[in-house]
Amino acid sequence: MIKALIAFSICFCGLVSAQQAQSPSQTAPRPRGGPGGRGLWLDGPGGIANPRAEQRLTQALNLNAAQQSTAHTAIEEAKVILKGAAQQERDLRTQLGAAVKTGDEAGIERISQNLAALHQQRTSTEAKALAKIYGSLTADQKTLMDRALNRSLGSPGAGARGPRPPRGAQPPNAPQAAQQ
């Protein structure tokens, strides 16, 4: 009985492996939305400071030379302002962990405020850079960028990741169920 179960398990694993090898398109990641199936990825790792952000914007929006220059300048200015912010955040998080372990409530409060200020600076700097880039776009390019911009900023509109209603709550415009 055990030998039959082991043989069945081996055969089943072989079939599953063969099935996965025959259909690689099912395991490949789906392209993100946007022009040409590629998103602008403004909200991805590194945000606008991502080394490839400028290249992605240029390709997705088909930026002309003047627009590329504006995007490059805005992104570089943001990088200069945010230089060291990632390391500073890591240091603050390490300090926060130490404060939690020692029960230092005053330290937790101070470090939390420092983290909030750092996040405020990053949000402001990235939004200002995006505003400069957005201002240089044509109407058609702005339409293409709106979805990615909404996702990046978490603002309402197409592509936004705004606040979600609590589980089980009905959306505000959903028809009410009949009461019995």
How would you describe what is shown here?
The protein has helices at residues 2-22, 24-27, 53-61, 65-82, 85-102, 105-135, 139-153. By secondary structure, the chain is mainly alpha-helical. The protein has a domain at 37-153: Four Helix Bundle (Hemerythrin (Met), subunit A) (Up-down Bundle), CATH 1.20.120. The longest helix is centred in the middle third of the chain and has 31 residues, at 105-135. The chain is extended and about 55 Å long.
Secondary-structure blueprint of this entry?
Elements: H1 2-22, H2 24-27, H3 53-61, H4 65-82, H5 85-102, H6 105-135, H7 139-153
Helix pairs in contact: 3-4, 4-6, 5-6
What is the CATH T-level topology of one domain? Four Helix Bundle (Hemerythrin (Met), subunit A)
CATH class designation of one domain: Mainly Alpha
Low-pLDDT residue spans: 20-39
Largest sheet: none
Give me the Rg, rounded.
24 Å
The fraction of residues assigned to DSSP E strands is under 5%
How much helicity do the residues have? 55-70%
Q: What does the oligomeric state look like here?
A: single chain
Count of runs of 4 or more consecutive helical residues: 7
The end-to-end span amounts to: 57 Å
| Overall residue-averaged pLDDT value | 74
CATH architecture tag of one domain: Up-down Bundle
What best-fitting shape do the alpha-carbon axes yield?
Answer: extended
**Secondary-structure element order, N to C:** HHHHHHH
What class would the helix/strand composition place it in?
mainly alpha
Number of strands: 0
